[in-house]
Amino acid sequence: MKKLFFTIIALAVAFTVKAQWVNNPSTNTFIANSSADAGEVYLSTDPVSGDTYVQWAQFGSNSWSPTLQRLNEAGEPQWGDAGIHPSYHQMTSWSQGFAMASTTDGAVVTCFATEAGHTIAIKINADGTYAWGEQGLTLFGGAGESRTELLAGDDGGVWALGTSVDNGNLYLCYIEANGTMNPTITISDDNGALCMFGLLVPAPNDNVFVVYEKEQWAYTYFYEKDIRVVGYSKDGTQISDDVQLMSPVTIPGSYIHYVVPDGLGGGYVYIWHAGGVGGNFNTYVFHFNQNGASTITNLNGIPVHSEDPYNYYIDAYATVDPVSHDLIIVYVQTDAQFQQESRVYANRFNTIGDRLWNEGVLFVEENGNDHSSLRIDAFEYGGGYAFFYNEGDGYNSTLKAIGIDDSGNPIWNTTMSSNSYPRTMCRNTCGYRAGQNIMAWVNSNTGGLYGQNIGQNGEMGVITPPTPPTPCDAPTDFAGEAYYNPETGVGAAVLSWTAPETTPLHYNLYCDATKEIIEIDAEYDSYYLERDPGEYIFKLTAVYEDCESNYALTANGDNYILINIPDHTSVSEIEYEEIINIVEIYNINGQIIKVNSIDDLSQGMYLIKGMTQSGKTVVRKIVK
User: Fold this and answer.
1) Tens digit of each residue's pLDDT (9 = 90 or more) over 459-490
2) Hey, which of 220, 584, 622, 623 has its CA 20 to 30 A from 332?
3) Distance CA 76, CA 431 (A)
4) Cα(470)–Cα(414) distance, rounded to whole angstroms?
5) 3-class SS of residue 568
6) Tens digit of pLDDT for each residue in 574-598?
7) C-alpha–C-alpha distance, residues 251 and 590, integer Å
8) CB hemisphere CA count around 161 (13 angstroms)
9) 504 secondary structure, DSSP code
10) Which of the four pLDDT bands, split at 50, 70 and 90, describes residue 16?
């Protein structure tokens, strides 16, 4: 967001006392000195150490540029009262799309575009030293002079995404932990559309999805835009099709989309717009899976609220439940005529676009105040959510938080910052870790960067981490095939899987066609199921004392198996060929039997999986 300043900036008075998380909403925790006009506040918590990095931008010797601070889990600033300010590069007097991400090796990377039109990435170690030098790295061969995005990889490196407003291209590359840059990927449109506003989502196997907009000018201030997703590997290989998530719609160019990972290798996308010129504003939800494919058939998206000519539903912010992988989204309702009322709602969506809380749950009633800067995060092990908002008169505000359970019921209400003054809030939150979440803001009246932690019970200050739940791991490598015995006319499905590390109480096998739930003993990792001819969809979970896992995934990343059990009319002659090479032998319960030949089997019924002379793999039942 561009931000122009024409006033002389006065720095806040320096603090010398080392702060830590307080539980007093009238004081809050000092993070660093900043100017009153500072902004672009971002947060990211190190997944290993628990330290939180905070970045903000303000005027300095190199113009409008970023500064960073590191907080330990107790909320104590580690880089002095002023933080660390990279000053090697000259910046412009307005925001160039700053980005920041903590890495898995304990460092932080800041990324921005300079006055010279280059995208720069600088890595700072936890001790404040520059891992890649203070000058950092010039990305994309010097291209990408505008908006930037970062996403941490699994090995201490980061994905970096840059935008060129000059040619309408996106540039992507992976930077290894040591600063080695992989090939630059260019995302462009052959028909002249602008590729803009890219966001990054982790994809399976440490790959990445880019969710971006294609824009074409319609007329003054309006663009026809759609939303697309495409996946890449670190070496620049495209790993998924470039898929359209949202059909083209003509809306003001300032309204852009947002993305949140779904925890399954895909992500949810949401955007608010007027549904075309002259329409009423609503927020629309989309989803793509781990293969980059849209799972919501309506390319107009699913609105958070039914069409309402009298109200807008906007300013949304979302999180994902770590257990159900549903999207939980908060948003503001304002009246369409004057946009003065300000109610806060939440709604819930699954991956196929079902709106699970109907017209949303009302949490903050219109009370004569504005409600803004909505943020929401799921508790780290599931069971509920906390959302945050400013309440005020449009200038001065206080910061409040509400906890809600899985069903959308309020469970606590906390005032996090009770002094009313103008605030520039953080653009994101770092989410719950070790039981606490963090909000940060600039006092836009006197200056100074402040923050406050909050626990899953609405407490502040010293927070006791929650006890991790029993692992709820799903089986993996779910596989299956059809079986047919032409002599008896019996058809069946033969299913197999790899057991999770933690032994479950049992498995649940779901058969969609017959609506069955079959309980399978935990000692088995395969199963034989006789059924009439037809198509069957099977899903498998592991059941533990306190939970049931997600569905087991196949080698292709699907959470189901489709098996077509044949009858005598659809079995080819090859099915009658003799098996010349045995691959596996199963008992009637589907367990693999470890023997060298059929002669070693004891009396009973078995399934033989083998190869025929023509190379066909078949499964047959034998009785010995």
Assistant:
1) 999 999 998 887 889 999 999 888 777 666 77
2) 220
3) 18
4) 29
5) helix
6) 455 777 788 778 776 667 777 767 7
7) 57
8) 23
9) P
10) very low
Establish how many alpha carbons lie within 13 A of residue 249's alpha carbon, considering only the half-sphere containing its beta carbon: 25
Nearest to 528 by CA among 601, 602, 615, 608: 608
First-to-last CA distance in the chain? 75
Q: Are the CB atoms for 245 and 263 separated by under 8 Å? A: no
Output the CA–CA distances (angstroms, integers) from residue 352 to 57, 455, 559, in the order listed: 39, 31, 14
Residue 568 banded pLDDT, cuts 50, 70, 90: low
* Interstrand relation of 158-164 and 169-175 (parallel, antiparallel or unpaired): antiparallel
Strand positions, DSSP E, 29-93: 29-32, 39-45, 52-60, 63-71
How many residues are listed for the chain in this entry? 624
- Nearest C-alpha neighbor of 160 from the set 191, 181, 135: 181
Position 301 scores a pLDDT of 95
CB atoms closer than 10 angstroms to residue 372: 17
Cβ contact 372:423 at 8 Å: no
Q: Decide the pairing of beta strands 99-102 and 108-113.
A: antiparallel
Residues whose CB is less than 8 angstroms from the CB of residue 190 and which lie 6 or more positions away in sequence, other chains included: none
User: 474 near 464, Cβ under 8 Å?
Assistant: no
Instruction: Note the Cα 136 to chain centre separation in Å.
Output: 28
Beta strands in 132-242 (DSSP E): 137-138, 148-152, 158-164, 169-175, 185-187, 194-203, 207-219, 222-232
Question: Beta strand pairing status for 222-232 and 207-219?
Answer: antiparallel
**What does DSSP assign to residue 294?**
B
Q: List the structure tokens of 511.
A: 């058969």
- Measured from the Cβ of residue 350, the count of other Cβ atoms closer than 10 Å reads 18
- Fill in the amino acid letter for 236: G
Q: Rounded CA gap, 43 and 56, in Å?
A: 9
Neighbours of 337 (CB within 10 A): 9
Instruction: Name the pTM for this structure.
Output: 0.79
Evaluate if residue 32 carries a pLDDT over 50: yes
Six token digits for residue 85:
């300010």
**Strands of the sheet with 490-498, listed across from one edge:** 476-485, 490-498, 526-530
The type of residue at 207 is: N
Give the number of other Cβ atoms within 10 Å of residue 512's Cβ: 13
- The distance of Cα 4 from the centroid of its chain, to the nearest Å, equals 32
Measured in degrees and rounded to the nearest 5, phi and psi for residue 574 equal -65, -25
Residue 405 contacts residue 321 (beta carbons within 8 Å): no
Q: In what order do the strands lie in the sheet with 108-113?
A: 99-102, 108-113, 119-124, 137-138
Within its chain, how far is the Cα of 446 from the centroid? 35
Please work out, in degrees rounded to the nearest 5, the angle formed at the alpha carbon of residue 376 by the alpha carbons of 372 and 378.
170
> In a 10 Å sphere around its CB, with 0-12 CB exposed, 13-18 middle and 19+ buried, how is residue 83 labelled?
buried
